[in-house]
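User: Design a sequence. Structure:
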């Protein structure tokens, strides 16, 4: 079980499952050949070169609050993806074994409302979906809720079984995308993957960390921020947000904790001095195609900087 200390704040990872079978569907650009050519990606791919995705919750403990960020897939839920359908996992046992009591969680924070981020918001009790964290405020970004109230869902009745019961129980709180949750924790708008997607910024005693959410699914997107996933609702906006995020955080002592990164899960964004010439060419070709459309594209045109995760 991985834990990180950021000043007076502790972040603990509770893993529900890890999978390499989703990768080719989610990020078809991340071929085994490309992944195996990049040595620093080794912990994040399997022996066949397929990208590994970890489904985990992150529990933030501040001096005053215990906050669960993202609640994975959940049990007993009807899902169109066979491996997630009617799952019977031991997430809650792992959660308890890590020393956390569901009834003592103060806040649940969903970075967005996709199937693998809201699942344990609820559990099935005598045929009804009830909040797993019965005494928590569940925070959702206003824009995210506005979107999913009308948008069609890909994986099954996720909103119906994992979000609406939270509203029905009176535990949902709609907040702005830059909402200050407590002294140490603030939301940071990172739209694109979904319209109301947020990342989570932690500051304590001069130390900082950011929980990515699905703004970056896999560390290979730090090297290739232009690789949007098939799950990104708006692939262009998702890529722009990644570019801006990498520029903002590169070279700073701010721990980046990945919501789907396999172990070691966290690291620092740094310029990649081994960036291959071929990749720079790819990048400059892309920049030419986009040149003049926005200040960000202009920057790309002038720079061949690429990044990696230093862990
Ligand atoms: Zn996800």
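Assistant: Done.
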């Amino acid at each position: 079980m991985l834990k990180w200390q950021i000043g007076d704040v502790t972040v603990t990872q509770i893993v529900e499952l890890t999978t390499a079978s989703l990768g080719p569907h989610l990020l078809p650009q991340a071929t085994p050949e490309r992944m195996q050519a990049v040595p620093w990606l080794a912990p994040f791919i399997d022996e066949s070169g397929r990208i590994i995705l970890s489904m985990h919750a992150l529990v933030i403990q501040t001096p005053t609050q215990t906050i669960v960020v993202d609640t994975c897939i959940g049990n007993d839920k009807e899902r169109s993806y066979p491996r997630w359908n009617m799952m019977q996992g031991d997430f809650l046992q792992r959660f308890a074994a890590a020393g956390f009591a569901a009834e003592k969680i103060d806040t649940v924070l969903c970075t967005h409302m996709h199937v693998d981020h809201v699942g344990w918001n609820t559990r099935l009790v005598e045929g009804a979906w009830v909040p797993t964290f019965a005494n928590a405020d569940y925070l959702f970004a206003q824009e995210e809720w506005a979107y999913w109230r009308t948008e069609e869902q890909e994986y099954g009745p996720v909103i119906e079984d994992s979000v609406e019961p939270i509203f029905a129980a009176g535990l949902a709180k709609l907040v702005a995308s830059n909402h200050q949750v407590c002294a140490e924790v603030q939301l940071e708008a990172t739209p694109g993957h979904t319209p109301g997607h947020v990342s989570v910024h932690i500051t304590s005693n001069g130390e900082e960390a950011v929980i990515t959410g699905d703004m970056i699914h896999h560390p290979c997107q730090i090297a290739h921020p232009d690789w949007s996933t098939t799950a990104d609702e708006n692939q262009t906006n998702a890529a722009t947000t990644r570019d801006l995020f990498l520029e903002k955080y590169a070279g700073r002592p701010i721990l980046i904790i990945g919501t789907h990164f396999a172990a070691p899960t966290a690291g620092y964004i740094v310029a990649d001095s081994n960036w291959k010439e071929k990749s720079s060419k790819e990048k400059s070709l892309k920049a030419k195609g986009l040149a003049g459309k926005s200040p960000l594209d202009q920057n790309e045109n002038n720079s061949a900087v690429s990044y990696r995760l230093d862990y």
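The longest helix spans residues 235-249. The chain has ten helices and 16 strands.
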